[in-house]
Amino acid sequence: MRGDGDGWVIGENGTRHWGKHGAAGLLLRAPSDAGEPVVLLQHRALWSHQGGTWALPGGARDSHESTAHAAVREAHEEAGIAAEQLSVRSERVTASVESGWSYTTVIADTDHALTTVPNGESTELRWVPESIVDELPLHPGFASSWPSLRTAPLRVLLDTANVLGSRPNGWWKDRAGSTGALLTSLAETLPRTVELPSGQYGWLTRIEAVLEGRARDAMVDDPRIPVILADGSGDDTLADQAHRGGDLTALVTADRGLRDRLPESVQVLTPSAVLGWL
User: Which of 10, 26, 92, 111 is within CB 3.0–4.6 Å of 75 for a Cys-Cys bond?
Assistant: First the structure.
């Protein structure tokens, strides 16, 4: 039933946690005009628990709800944001206690900073640049989880031939055309939050696609997909690019030989994971 999660869970030491079935909050991220990530924060009403601090829209999960459903519902109730305006990317349990109570942070993206409509639980809703979130007086629970939730600028290298070849969709009949269609589709998924194998989150605004052979003739004109043309082996070019350092880097491939040539700092995303963005 709607609202059957409202109530306190009391621990053995008398600590109280809101939500009979646990609680969930929505970490909603959007690009600023400059492309940098901003997140939606709620300045909690003074009458509420830990009032006056900044945190995420969220609340108790009802017995019939998934954590993602609960977080999105709470964002609608507290900020006026509809489910169809966002895309859920990931979720993570960011607090749990011996009583069995837990808090799940649901991570989602939207393509621009949406207009919000606060209810009585907020004194203000604000889109805050990620870089200054920790300068605000944060709710203690959110403050403790924020370091594991914030993103770092992410560089992604695409083993285009490997990704293209992972789908039996007739790409070999027109390699250049199929390559262009793939890269155009991937561009439309950006910018976005990416959960990496390490558990870290990256903010991805572009994908660097390495092209070799006939794929070099692909027509790609989108700043979100800069193209690197390999003079010889695509693997050699990818390995060289991966060793150049810089931002947090991931490479998309299923090629074990290429993976063995990468620096330890470079994380690997599978083609199926990235194609799942489509």
Answer: 26
